[in-house]
Amino acid sequence: MKGKGSWIPLLCLLSTVVLANEYVPLPGGPFHSSLRFGDNGGEVVVEGYQLMSRPVREAEFLAFVQAYPQWRRDRIPRLFADAGYLSHWDRPLAPRPGTLNFPVTRVSWFAADAYCRARGARLPAWLEWEFAAAADARQTDARDDADRRRRILTLGTPGAYRDAGESMPNVYGVHDLHGLVWEWPWDHASMMAAADSRNVDTENPLRYCGGSALAFSDRRDYAVIKRVALLSALSARTTLSNLGFRCAKELP
Amino acid sequence: MKANREENTQSRPAVSRPWDCLSVLLPLLVLTMLIPQAVRGEQSLPGDSVYALSATVQNEKGETLQWRDLRGQPRLVSMVYTRCRMSCPLIIHQGMSVQQRLLEEGSAVPRLLIISMDPDHDTPDVLTETMARYRLTPGRATFLRPRDHQERTIAALLDIRFRQRDDGGFDHTNAWLLLDADGRIVARTEKMAGAPDPAFVREVEAVTASHHSKAQGDHR
């Protein structure tokens, strides 16, 4: 009895040590978004927040699926994820060996949202992601750097074939905002311009693609535009082999 | 320090044993309470039911309920915000028109489920006031505000998109959805002006008719 009881807390302790994904504080402040929200031309004020220093990894997502089996790939309701959900795992509770520290991919927005909620956190708003992703290792807003622009555009998403957190962190201590995977923002469904269907004749393709092109305040930021065009066209059920997520929280 | 350590070693056997038991028994107890419910729910709920979402909502009376509690009746669902002056009145009136059309044709009338995308502002008082403004009775409509920031999750299930503007208003999809009693999305209309979409009304009639014949069959 005693032996059985004692390994449970030990296991908990061990798993938190191994799986800890630390949050780093970001101060927020006035910010020029590459997306135009209404008439402000992209000028917004981002509130301070905390962000995971790296994307959620396969091992962390495995722990979540073990604790909340309704999110296993063989139990998830169809409405919450398409057929690709965690389809790269060997079995419903078995990611491929050697990939436990890779960022988790092939997760739907619903699953990402549920993961962060279960951790007492939330998905970051697009602006929070964009604010963090504007920084490089030296400055909080490196977006005027033409070399960097070209670099992050050609980096793309190589297919998630490395551990999360290996890249150099930005000034806030956040890793892998560029060059590893794309990430679900909380409000992905609200980024395109033509969400308002007062124009009833609008056809879907225009509403998604053409619609979002109209909403950019800075067309030079093509790496960001590419991301928004992709994310805003996705349904919350969609899973992709290069799309993961990280969580955010309010400042303590 | 030394005294402390002695105290610890002395008290450990007495304290650790019940604690060890609890660490095993408590989760077990909780599990035995939870598992049958979860299993039963999964078995009976279709995989494409919106009620598979675990979410908390509050109605216009201030009552807190689980999203899945809405299961059991076909419903007409839409999302609005009450400060809206343009499209939301159109949406609500269109829902009422669908109900009116069904009444005229002698069909059963499903309740309108009007969900706020602006839960911070749309308190139960505001929702009650809005309901009165449209002369909607609880038999005809329920107003809900999602809790815990789940308005986006519910909207995603319904494929309704919205974005808050600087002025506090929202750009949003205008739509009515027909849910069957188990929460499957059966039909959708984005026609908000003029007479209700006839194809949508037919779908509502079909779903309510099949629901009532099934319900009668159960009673027999």
From TrEMBL, chain A:
InterPro entries: CTDL_fold, Sulfatase_Mod_Factor_Kinase, SUMF_dom, SUMF_sf
Every Sulfatase-modifying factor enzyme-like domain range: 21-249
Protein name per Swiss-Prot or TrEMBL: Sulfatase-modifying factor enzyme-like domain-containing protein
Source taxon at top rank: Bacteria
Pfam family membership, one: FGE-sulfatase
TrEMBL record, chain B:
Pfam families the UniProt entry points to: SCO1-SenC
Gene3D superfamilies to which the protein is assigned, alphabetical: Glutaredoxin
Similarity field: Belongs to the SCO1/2 family.
The protein, known as: Electron transporter SCO1/SenC
